[in-house]
Amino acid sequence: MKTLLVAAIALAVMPYWAMAEEPSQTTKDPLATVVQPFVDSHALAGAVMLVANKDRVLALSTAGYADIGANKQMPKDALFWIASESKPITATAFMMLVDEGKVHLDDPVGKYLPEFYNVWLKVEQSSDHILLKRPHHAITIREILSHTSGLPFMSPMEQPTLDHLPLRDSVLSYAMTPLEYEPGTKYQYSNAGINTAGRIIELLSGMPYEKFLSERIFKPLGMKDTTFWPNKRQLTMLAKSYAPNEQKDDLKEITVSQLKYPLDGPGRYPMPAGGLFSTASDLGRFGQMILNGGTFGGKRYVSEASIHEMTRKQTADSIPDSYGLGWGTYGGNFGHGGAYSTNLQIDTHNGLVLVWMVQHAGFPKNGDQSFGAFQKAAIERFGSTSK
Questions:
Q1: Average pLDDT of 61-80?
Q2: d(Cα 240, Cα 80) in Å, to the nearest integer?
Q3: Nearest Cα to 196, choosing from 120, 103, 271?
Q4: What is the pLDDT of residue 385?
């Protein structure tokens, strides 16, 4: 009786938030439940999943492992290389300058980087010759942000890793590399175009690209673990990277071949098209700001008009790929994935932000279906009540 009385008193004085933090062991997480089978079958190492509406986070779930070999379960604050998910962040930063009237989307790139007035277009090429001519028009900012500029994915100088050159030098090398096609006539995914937009941000803002992102987006949004250079603490949070083994029936641990190691060492430079590391919670805040028309926590970051421009189809009707300015577009919804399978989706139909954080350069078995399973479960659970 005395033991029961002490327990009752302790329960009565326990603050409500302490009780709320420890969910019932019988309560099943619907997101983790649909993803766990992929972990059990060795098709997926692990994942962090976030679902939010414009006002609050609705779910933050984990499944599997951040480090299979060490038997380390995936924590909610795990850090991931988000790769090309950096592109919509760069585009959003750029549109802030458009909002301020410092630049226009149909300006020629050469207006800010004169070397781009002298680019050549590749007409034909063989092992012993190349034929060049001038393009019909100078490439525009709209074209570099929508992958329709003719710039290649990267330049020959961006070896052995994509982050070993200062941004200024990388962009100069693009102007020295012949265009692949007439600007505006095709869609060809191009890190070079987004990196060039990042260099223009530097010139117009008068500060390094990475500082502009930090001062205008990361710090005010509270994205405390979004960076190009993970520090010692953040490196302990970094999820291991995986790929299918040779037999395609299990996973093997890998490193990120596109980046220079150590990740906190010297000689690494910011890459606007794909260099950022982040967490699910950080990306959720960015996504909420976009879903909320450019505002978060009572502060406006970018105009609704700019968000509309970024997220509408910019590629021509004759071009099957549907891309905006730094964002992929999907029938009114929009988002972007990363090279190691991370994904950020803004579901305007259901009023949801969906963040999928994994670290996979491909999947064995049916692992590539794991994101779809998460997306379906999130919409079924939260889609009808989130708006």
A1: 98
A2: 9
A3: 271
A4: 56
Q: What is the DSSP letter of 202?
A: H
pLDDT tens readout for residues 195-237: 999 999 999 999 999 999 999 999 999 999 999 999 999 999 9
Mean pLDDT score, 45-51: 98
| Identity of residue 54 | K
Residue 290 · residue 325 · CB < 8 Å: no
Cα gap 77→60, rounded to integer Å: 10
Separation between Cα atoms, residue 74 and residue 360, nearest integer Å: 14
**Residue 188, pLDDT above cutoff 80:** yes
H or E element in which residue 329 lies? strand 328-330
User: What whole-number distance in Å separates Cα of residue 90 and Cα of residue 175?
Assistant: 20
127-153, pLDDT tens digit by residue?
889 999 999 999 999 999 999 999 999
- The residue written with tokens 């502009």 in the block is 212
Under CATH, to which class is 89-205 assigned?
A: alpha beta
Question: Could you identify the residue written with the tokens 């502060």?
Answer: 299
DSSP 3-state of 298: coil
Say whether pLDDT at 28 is over 90. no
Residue 100 neighbours by CB distance under 10 Å = 11
SS3 content of the chain, % helix, strand, coil (to 5): 35, 20, 45
Q: What is the rounded distance in angstroms from the CA atom of residue 284 to the CA atom of residue 319?
A: 31
Average pLDDT, the chain: 92
- Locate the DSSP E strands across 245-293: 251-254, 277-278
DSSP code of 368? Answer: G
191-230 residues labelled b (16+ CB within 10 A) or e (exposed): bbbbbbbbbbbbebbeeebbebbbebbbeebebebbbbbb
CB of 163 closer than 8 Å to CB of 259? yes
Which own/partner contact pairs does 155-158 have at CB distance under 8 Å and 24+ positions apart?
155/192
Instruction: Inform me whether the pLDDT recorded for 349 exceeds 60.
Output: yes
State how far the Cα of 278 lies from the Cα of 274, in Å rounded to an integer. Answer: 12
CATH superfamily of 29-79+225-382: DD-peptidase/beta-lactamase superfamily (3.40.710.10)
Angle of helix 304-311 relative to helix 86-99, nearest 10 degrees, comes to 140
Domain boundaries, the chain: 29-79+225-382, 89-205
- DSSP, res 347: E
